[in-house]
Amino acid sequence: MTTPEAVLASPLPVTSVRALANPARRRAQVGWNVLWTGVSGLATLWIALIVVVLLSTIVLGGWRTVTWEFLSQNPAQGLTKGGIFPAIFGTVALVLLMILAVLPVGVLAAVYLHEYARASSPLTRLVRFAVSNLAGVPSIVFGLFGLGFFVQFLGRGMDHALGQGLLFGQPAILWAALTLALLNLPVVIVATEEALRAVPRSAREGALALGATRWQTVRHVVLPQALPGVLTGAILSVSRGAGEVAPILFTGVAYYLPYLPWSPTDQFMELGYHVYVLATQSPDVAKTLPLLYGTVLVLLLLTFALNFTAVIMRSRLRRSMGLGT
Amino acid sequence: MTMTLETRPTSEASALKTPAARPEGAPPPPTTLETSGLSFHYGAHQALFDVSIAIHERTVTALIGPSGCGKSTLLRTFNRMNDLIDGARVQGRVSLDGEDIYGPGVDVVDLRRRVGMVFQRANPFPKSIYENVAFGPRMFGMRSGSGMDDLVERTLRQAALWNEVKDRLRDSALRLSGGQQQRLCIARCLAVEPEVLLMDEPASALDPTSTAKIEELMMLLKERYTIVVVTHNMQQAARISDRTAFLMQGRLVEVDVTARIFTQPRERLTEDYITGRFG
């Protein structure tokens, strides 16, 4: 029974596959197949249904509220009338500041981890461990950390050093944006590293073999190819940043402000927090309900618009490199 | 030294004579690359054992041997591409024009400019054909302009690619065929004016026509460059190389004039490998 010839010549064992493949068994197998196709299909349908119900509720409840006045005016009469312009402005400003803070640090950290650091070094492992744990920290903890570190420690410290009155040592859009940036740092690092990993080793070798330095290789070959992936990270962090309320709660968001945050030390209004305020802090819930629907719809549309812009930019980039979309 | 190689249509290039044998007793050509007592480790695994080999100037030297024999590792010690691997360790001496390239104070970046490399799979950058060739010169600080245009044209002519791409220099290099991409990679190397060209199975992923073009190109290029080529293809080694080195299990078994290696090798192992008894 050791040579192939001997095995081929011997009779089939009783429990051979051929013996098992009888019509009754086949019918049962076909039956199970149909059943599980149905079950998995229903699971998918369920998800689609939830999304449709969610979106249609919001759109139906809010589309009449979302007028030009609603988008361009301040809230009025104890939040029961008027618009949400300061909250839209605050959200956009917050997200832009956050991206400015998180992208350079996150991308450079990922470049260091993936292109420079030796994968086996204890320091690299420690940093990776820290990054993945950072991603698991509840967002309210980031909020408290932001209050303690940015507002109390850094802000007060700056005020003290500058020897003037209270300026930095209070909640402000700057600190809120930095706190959000911290929350999104793992998102950007992981997405960028993913993108760097997808750049083939041969591309790096091609550049290095021509006499490019490591930085020239990263700057002119690796990063351009990784850019679409980096943008994916940016998209994810924008979506998350526009929706998170907990991290900005103690660090800068305001219930109501009659002015816009033109200075980084100003407080600001934000759509997500405004939704919370309208839903829980209003003296007259029936009156604010249409405004609530409208605000949620605007928040959704804004996030979609930001995402969509980034998706378009990404596919443009890929096409310009001849990589297809 | 003139900057351009005389370019010929490829059909003429194919009719080029095979290298004329040196008359007996003539002094050997100067040595460009030389290793002595070279050993190489990937972590605990030793890939090269005490390899001593001399690569002659303006010749094609073929490295042959079964898979895993260390021929690619040897090739990559010549431009220190192995430095990029975690846990790589080199013992012994590798010299380029008499200078130890693993010595202290050696500029690896300049070494890699002087010793160009072409890989098994063509790896053009996802940029235009023009930008691929201009990449190396730009890294060394050359600016755009007519000087760069001239350099790109001259280099593409050297790589026998100009006529096929001159009307679409701004197209993505990824739209070229596999063989054209490989010739573009050769052009990319030539643009930084190297002395040595290392080629790691440059035609193994190509069809016979493209392979023939690469081989013709190598015959032209060896008039100006020292070429070391790793190949799995015995016929290719016999066709294109002046000298052939046979490696096995990390050791250099034999190195000699190609004609002698293929007709009367000194070692039994070489003969067995050449005649297809193993590998």
Topology:
The complex is a heterodimer of chains A (325) and B (279).
Chain A: H1 4-9, H2 17-20, H3 23-62, H4 68-72, E1 75-76, E2 81-82, H5 85-116, H6 122-134, H7 139-162, H8 173-198, H9 201-209, H10 214-243, H11 246-249, H12 271-280, H13 285-320
Antiparallel strand pairs in A: 1-2
Helix pairs in contact in A: 3-13, 5-8, 5-10, 7-8, 8-10, 9-10, 10-13, 12-13
Chain B: H1 10-13, E1 31-42, E2 45-56, E3 60-64, H2 71-77, E4 88-96, E5 99-100, H3 108-114, E6 115-118, H4 129-139, H5 146-158, H6 162-165, H7 178-190, E7 196-200, H8 208-221, E8 226-230, H9 234-240, E9 243-248, E10 251-257, H10 258-263, H11 268-274
Parallel strand pairs in B: 3-8, 3-9, 6-7, 7-8
Antiparallel strand pairs in B: 1-2, 1-4, 4-5, 9-10
Helix pairs in contact in B: 4-5, 4-7, 7-8
Report what the structure shows.
Chain A has helices at residues 4-9, 17-20, 23-62, 68-72, 85-116, 122-134, 139-162, 173-198, 201-209, 214-243, 246-249, 271-280, 285-320; strands at 75-76, 81-82. Chain A has a two-stranded antiparallel ribbon. The longest helix of chain A has 40 residues, at 23-62. Chain A is an all-alpha fold and 325 residues long. Chain A contains 13 helices and two strands; from the N terminus they run H-H-H-H-E-E-H-H-H-H-H-H-H-H-H. Chain B is an alpha/beta fold. Chain B has eleven helices and ten strands. In chain B, the strands form two sheets. A six-stranded mixed β-sheet of chain B has the order 6-7-8-3-9-10, sandwiched between helices. In chain B, helix 4 (129-139) packs parallel to helix 7 (178-190) and helix 7 (178-190) runs parallel beside helix 8. The longest helix of chain B is centred in the last third of the chain and has 14 residues, at 208-221. The chains are: A mainly alpha (325), B alpha/beta (279). The A-B interface holds A 118-120, 200, 202-213, 216, 220-221, 224-225, 321-323 and B 79, 81, 84, 86, 109-113, 116-117, 119, 121, 123-127, 135-136, 138-140, 172-175, 185, 188-189, 192.
